[in-house]
Amino acid sequence: MPKRTSKTVRAALVALTATTIAATAIGPAAAATPAAAATGAESHAATQAALNGLVAADMPGVAAGTLTPKGTWSGSAGYADTATKRKRTAADHFRAGSITKTFVATVLLQLEAEGKLSLDDSVEKWLPGVVKGNGYDANKITIRHLLNHTSGVHDMVYTPEWNEQMNGQGFFEHRYDIKTPQQIVAMGIKYGPDFEPGKGWRYSNTNFVLGGMIIEKATGKPYAREVERRIVKPLGLKETSFPGTDPKLPAPHPVGYSKLYVPDPGPEIYDATEYRPSWSGATGEVVSTSGDLNRFFSSLLQGKLLPKKQLDEMLTTVETGEHYTYGLGIISRKLTCGVQVYGHDGVVWGSLTGAAGTRDGKHMLTFNINGDWLNESPPFENMFEGEFCGALPKTAADKPAKETPAKKTPAKNAPASATAVNTLR
Description:
Layout: H1 45-56, E1 61-68, E2 71-81, E3 86-87, E4 94-95, H2 100-113, H3 123-126, E5 132-133, E6 136-137, H4 143-147, H5 160-166, H6 169-174, H7 181-189, H8 205-219, H9 223-235, E7 257-258, E8 270-271, E9 287-288, H10 290-301, H11 308-315, E10 318-319, E11 324-326, E12 331-334, E13 340-348, E14 351-358, E15 364-369, H12 377-389
Antiparallel strand pairs: 1-2, 1-15, 2-3, 4-9, 5-6, 7-8, 10-11, 11-12, 12-13, 13-14, 14-15
Helix pairs in contact: 1-12, 2-8, 2-11, 7-8
């Protein structure tokens, strides 16, 4: 997810109809519960305080896991299921949304290292005729532009079609639909470019759907199979999967609570756990756990997945106008204590995820919230501050988040940490 500002915006694209929605509404968020700490809980007091703060900000539940040279730690607050009071745990599987982008970028960089493509190849070279019309010239859009969101290709998430079919009532009518990458791309490029390639920055999920299509063109295999072959299996990420058209999550998993990205939502919260992730594809399909994602990012940052040249390219970031910079499928944050961390955020229906680690890959954090309407930035960012700085910012410590009035227009390029984001951020 890209960042916006310290202020948040509810990405509201449609109003819920008065029609009865075929989902179960739940009550208020559960109170914070003690951490399920493994060892060394005292050194993660600020992280636990940040977990508690997320639940105090009216999220249903949150679980986090860390990886350091001293071992692992896990903590939680709130509930995986507010009806049964089942607690969140480090074993939970969750939809990690846009963290998929880092996997996709890694495979494309591996292909570059193998001489099978160049980041400066045009989209037209690999996908002739796919991006055309409405002011687009795919000869001027490169793979690098796709990976760092400088392509100008319009985000399919911010279209009337997406809004109608995947937000509000439309989610329940269409969540089991199957979409091809070509259909998703066509939804975005129906609308003209946001800017000329290389002349701006805007987060666009369409970029990574195109990236997945290029992987398939270069290898002859679907992007997910290449990610599994090149990353998941070698690293032993046994809890990580790319479910394709399977709408279910592996056990154990939390209920995914959602407000369905509608304007000015009421108190109603719905179960959005199941849907076919072909809607997300190479921009947001991955299902994983905190342990697997910590292992992935740690291995990536330590150079176990990419040669130095390609890793340096990945970590070369561009300005976004937000509180973070963006590399090739990766977010870089500079925290208040001066520590720089690298990772990605992920937002899909019923799930908010954050993952980041230090440049040497030795200190990692992944956390997941089983709700998608967080609309105060500090509680989300406090997770990184707590873990990597050892304290919450004084202005934010021990302060529950307050409900912020929704703006009428969505943030086009804001990550979970900065906004109440639309899906797939």
